[in-house]
C-alpha cells in the first residue's frame, strides 16, 4: 500500500499529522506493506526572512494581526503538539524559506533516508531553533541522518533536486491540494489535515481491504486542521 504525503517543514500541523499517522501505522497489522512517500509543498514559496524578526512577528504579519496574537496562535499550536509528544519551541524557531530543505528531503529519498531526513528537519526547526534555510545547517543535518556532506553541499548548491520539488508542487495543484498535510492512499483516497490517529487507522484498514488499482479521482474522506498559503486553520 502506498501512502503519499504532501507537507511543508514549517507547517506546524504537518509535524503533528506525521506523529498521528505514525501512531496509527505502528498498530497496523500490515505496516510492513506500507510505503510512505513524502512530497514537497511550500506554503510561502516567495518567503524571504527578515533579519531580527521572530516567528511570532512573522506569523502576525502573514495573518494581518498583532504580534501578541501571533504568539497566541503559536502557543495554541505548541499545546496541540504536546498532545502527540512534540515539544514545540517557537521562541527559538527561525523563520526560513523551505525550498532548500525540500531538496534535502529528495536527496534523502535518493539514498533511502527520506523519512529520517524529514523527521530531522522537523525537529531542527520546531524544537532546536536551527535555521533550515541555511546551506551549512542543512549539510550538517544531512550528515546526521547518514548523507555524505560533500554530495549534500554539491546537490543543494547546484539545485540537483529543485525540479523534483517543483514536480511535487505541480502534482499537488493537479489533485487540488489546498492545505497540508495532505495524505493520499493508493492514488484513490485523500485525507486532509492532522486527523486523529483513530481515523488514520480506519483509513489504513479500509484501503488495505479494498486495495484497488490507482484511479485519477480522489475521494475525500476527511478534512481537518491544515496549513495553507494564508496560514494555519
Radius of gyration: 17 Å
Counting helices, strands and paired strands, the structural category is: alpha/beta
Helix content: 40-55%
Shape: globular
Instruction: Tell me the distance between the termini.
Output: 30 Å
Largest β-sheet summary:
5 strands, mixed
Low-confidence stretches: none
Structure in words:
With 233 residues, the protein is of the alpha/beta class. Helices cover 48% and strands 12% of the residues. The strands form two sheets. It has a five-stranded mixed beta sheet, with helices on both faces. Strands 6-7 form a two-stranded antiparallel sheet. α1 crosses α9 and α4 packs antiparallel against α5. The longest helix is centred in the N-terminal third of the chain and has 16 residues. 39% of the residues are buried. The mean pLDDT is 94.
Walk me through the topology.
Blueprint: E1 2-7, H1 12-26, E2 35-40, H2 55-63, H3 67-82, H4 99-110, H5 114-126, H6 135-144, H7 149-158, H8 162-174, E3 182-185, E4 189-192, H9 197-210, E5 219-223, E6 227-228, E7 231-232
Parallel strand pairs: 1-2, 4-5
Antiparallel strand pairs: 1-3, 3-4, 6-7
